[in-house]
């Protein structure tokens, strides 16, 4: 009682959380009404449900998977909800791992390597009767959070939510009505507590409970609303929409890594351009957004639109290609998409650093570091993602040099195809001469004779160009021919360089098409 009284004096909203998410009424919808096609189900998700029910627990396919099934779309991911605790779930499967602190869930893993599949299993959560309040956040209050089942920060954002309860309360804890339905694949029943089926058919996003309080619990729900609206063509119900703009400031308290992940999901739905429109509509980008998405701020104008001219065309084409790949069921690479989004800020910084006298390659490396610091922060430490972006960008200087053994080593690199696709986008947008991208495409796919002819053509073109006004460098031409540190576009027509080309080594693998080992922009 004393704790509740203090929370009330401090204006902490968590104590009233149970009042802001009213319980719904259980409605069981048979297959002849909901019309879910069993062929769209994932057999491994069904197997997880059956294993849990055979052990005496309740278990259902849940959330976005049910929503997509009702819309006649095969879900990308299948989640399962059960009344079994994480420890009980883990004990039923050979390869199962309890993960997470904020929400403890279980990953049940099938298969290995690139073909593996993860079924995410969560335990029904209860409506908390009271919450422990902490002063800091996930990072600064780790000790305070230890052992707590439900905790919130000073703004009411939920930091821990591991209180188990019945299904009716679990449904009330979910965000939108269309995500709060449960499907029993064995009885072919949909369980709906909040009118989710009607809202799905009306293409309406409706928040369960008081929207303002629910955004305060988890501000990322604002971003999820954007994603669903763009992906599904849904409209936000007026009461759900009303508090969005005043709640945007709450996103600044969300860990940067979580917001970054949500941004990637948002742009990889197959509707990235529609997502940008929704972000602008809700005030999440452009002036006044408060820097919620620093990466998007680097790419968009102050009004929240793609810029005019080459820059806007380049990003638009990159997003259109990404959307097309998603819709065709092909893989997309977050590193490639991010490299496209940040390229022109890298290019601006690179130009400024070069103008101060720094050689091109070191200048580009400095520009990349500065952009990572400014726009991504410690997210850039995410290993392969940052390394792939850096490699795509650094490769652009090497494409300018079409001589010596360096051309063979370049096309043999594992990330060559991604670097080339980036070059092709630059050419299609009008940033560079398309002839350069054409030359590299022909070289990568050509036979040994084709490649020799292309090198001869490039050498002849360089010899026809006027020499740069600079000190003689005949003695260093051989060295420059075999290093990535030579300036892009530099005249290399001196006799020693020509002699070096005649000693060109053959590429490993030799045969036609050996230079394009990976799918485009995978």
UniProtKB/TrEMBL annotation:
Q: Which UniProt keywords apply?
A: Nucleotidyltransferase, Transferase
Q: Is Transferase among the key words of this record?
A: yes
- Write the Enzyme Commission number(s) for this entry: 2.7.7.19
Instruction: Specify the protein name.
Output: Polynucleotide adenylyltransferase PcnB
């Amino acid at each position: 009682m004393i704790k509740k009284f203090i929370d009330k004096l401090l204006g902490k909203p968590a104590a009233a959380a149970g009042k802001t998410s009213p319980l719904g009424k259980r409605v069981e919808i048979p297959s002849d009404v909901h019309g879910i096609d069993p062929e769209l189900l994932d057999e491994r998700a069904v197997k997880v449900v059956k294993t849990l029910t055979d052990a005496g627990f309740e278990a259902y396919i849940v959330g976005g998977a049910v929503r997509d099934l009702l819309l006649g779309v095969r879900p990308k991911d299948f989640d399962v909800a059960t009344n079994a605790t994480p420890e009980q779930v883990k004990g039923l499967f050979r390869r199962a791992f309890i993960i997470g602190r904020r929400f403890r869930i279980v990953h049940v893993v099938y298969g290995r390597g690139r073909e593996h599949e993860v079924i995410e299993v969560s335990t029904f959560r209860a409506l908390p009767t009271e919450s422990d309040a902490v002063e800091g956040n996930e990072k600064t209050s780790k000790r305070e959070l230890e052992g707590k089942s439900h905790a919130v920060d000073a703004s009411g954002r939920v930091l821990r939510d591991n209180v188990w309860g019945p299904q009716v309360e679990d449904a009330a804890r979910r965000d939108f009505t269309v995500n709060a339905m449960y499907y029993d694949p064995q009885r072919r029943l949909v369980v709906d507590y909040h009118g989710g089926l009607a809202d799905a058919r009306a293409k309406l996003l409706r928040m369960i409970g008081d929207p303002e309080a629910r955004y305060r619990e988890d501000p990322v729900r604002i971003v999820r609303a954007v994603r669903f609206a763009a992906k599904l063509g849904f409209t936000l119900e007026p009461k759900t929409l009303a508090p969005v703009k005043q709640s945007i400031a709450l996103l600044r308290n969300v860990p940067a890594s979580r917001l970054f992940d949500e941004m990637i999901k948002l742009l990889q739905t197959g509707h990235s351009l529609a997502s940008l429109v929704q972000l602008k509509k809700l005030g999440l980008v452009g002036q006044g957004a408060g820097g919620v998405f620093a990466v998007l701020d680097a790419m968009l104008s102050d009004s929240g639109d793609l810029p005019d001219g080459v820059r806007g065309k380049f990003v638009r084409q990159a997003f259109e290609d990404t959307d097309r790949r998603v819709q065709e069921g092909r893989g997309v690479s977050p590193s490639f998409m991010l490299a496209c989004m940040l390229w022109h800020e890298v290019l601006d910084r690179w130009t400024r650093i070069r103008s101060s006298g720094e050689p091109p390659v070191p200048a580009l490396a400095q520009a990349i570091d500065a952009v990572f610091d400014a726009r991504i922060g410690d997210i850039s430490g995410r290993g392969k993602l940052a390394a792939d972006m850096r490699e795509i960008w650094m490769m652009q200087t090497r494409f300018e040099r079409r001589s010596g053994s360096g051309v063979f080593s370049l096309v043999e690199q594992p990330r060559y195809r991604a670097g080339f696709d980036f070059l092709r986008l630059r050419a299609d947008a009008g940033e560079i001469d398309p002839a350069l991208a054409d030359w590299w495409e022909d070289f990568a796919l050509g036979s040994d004779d084709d490649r020799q002819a292309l090198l001869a053509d490039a050498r002849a073109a360089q010899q026809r160009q006027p020499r740069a006004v600079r000190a003689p460098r005949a003695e260093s031409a051989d060295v420059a021919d075999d290093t990535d540190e030579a300036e892009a576009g530099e005249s290399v027509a001196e006799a020693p360089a020509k002699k070096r080309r005649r000693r060109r080594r053959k590429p490993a693998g030799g045969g036609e098409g050996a230079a394009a080992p990976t799918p485009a922009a995978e």
